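Blackboard transcription, Thursday session:
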Amino acid sequence: MSIFEEWWLPIEAAVNDKIPLSFGQNLYKEIYMNIIKDDRWANYLNGLWVTLKVSFFAILVGTLLGTLLAVLRLPEVTDLRYKGKNPLRKIGVAIVHFFSWFAKFYIDLIRGTPLLLQVLIINFGIFGTVKIDKVIIGVIACGLNSAAYVAEIVRGGLISVDKGQTEAGRSLGLSGPSTMVNIILPQAAKSALPALCNEFIALIKETSILSYIALTELTKAGDYIRSRTYSAFTPYIVSGLLYLLVTIVLTKLIGRLERRLANSDH
Amino acid sequence: MKKLIALLVSLMMIACVAMASAETVTVAFNPEYPPFEFVEGDAYLGYDVDLITAVAAKAGFDLEFEAMDFDAVTSAVMANPSYIGVSGISITEERLMNVDFSNGYINAGLIVVIKDGSGYATVEDLKGKTIGVQMGTTSDFAAEEITGAGNVAQYKTFLNAIMDLQGDKVDAVIVDKPVGLDILASLDDASLVIVDMGLQADWYGIEVNKENTELLEKINAALTELEAEGFFTELETKYFTGADVE
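(Written on the board underneath:)
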């Protein structure tokens, strides 16, 4: 018997005999029931692990897809014109315009509807009859959602890069895409970083919505404990502290990255 | 933490004072559980709704309904002396540590919903399988005992569990018998079948805050009277679809 259980026994006896508990005893009852009993702390850690997994891959998906969407929305792409006679090139420009239009449509659609609805539609609708891991559904739903926000953030970053940078790249003989990837995007990423950090933090917290489709992430872990102990405070506070821990660590890491990138300013 | 608890305690005290003068009792429940409680139009209907309305009429208090998730009901009753939980709540040891219960008013039993052709016939067959349940219900506790905590998918509503059963994301769903029969009758999905694996259920009771023993006595007295009048049989014929409930 562990020391925690030894402390618990007299309190349990008091509860059974309907003797009122002191403030300290009540506090320990909360901690014992919601964290220690039945290794419930492991529930929070498992939930945290799922939240981290989903967040990491959703951020990855969101950033890659979002950057692609941002590029498609640039004036260089939307204003692309071809006045020549080559039919293949004409079709090519039409396809680019279609993708550009789709990017705008996608961003409006995703930003204009609640994430909860998107999650429910993806789980019960699109993958309604497919046996698929809930973690993957979470990554898809949150990743697709985040992409729309990241797209606008990255677009802002891209616009902020001076036009002269593109001209310099092109006149040095780099191709259009190569100029974008090697010269414009790194500079855009730097100015977009604070806003991106914001979006990542928001995304981590928004994964809590996945508890609706029975994915046992951090919020659900707190919910689970509450459904066993009926305590409305302690489980959520433990979950909340863990979210806070993750976002604080992330903020620190990105802050460090920002300072390192700032070195190239001098 | 200390401050938070102090805040909570003071809020509860304020609530106590406010409640002492009021005669309105708030029913905390989850009206997504037909035939026990459900919404039709803008009215709450169901076995539990009729029952508590009759109890209130007999015991002489006013009712107010507050819809919430099922797993929030017991917490709400714990926090507010004027709240009662009437939501198909089984009387369990764990809940009794936190709230008082009226005398049990129905024992419906649990059933298992599976896909036709999956061939699960006994509890043994369900070991290690993913079981969908509504979070915090007796079905949830039963499923955890059968297949282990890691294999139970807990949903906010029972219907979501059924939808994931249709989508093959869970292998079986455990639910209270009248609820399962009712929902399957309205879904009319031939691919779903019901198996009675003899899972034991607990009696449903009305949750009352531990401080409000006076209310508890009133409710119990009303329940005894209603039973003598044959009110429960009336409710069963009104709400249960062909379910023989013991």
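Lecturer's comment: The longest strand of chain B covers residues 24-29.
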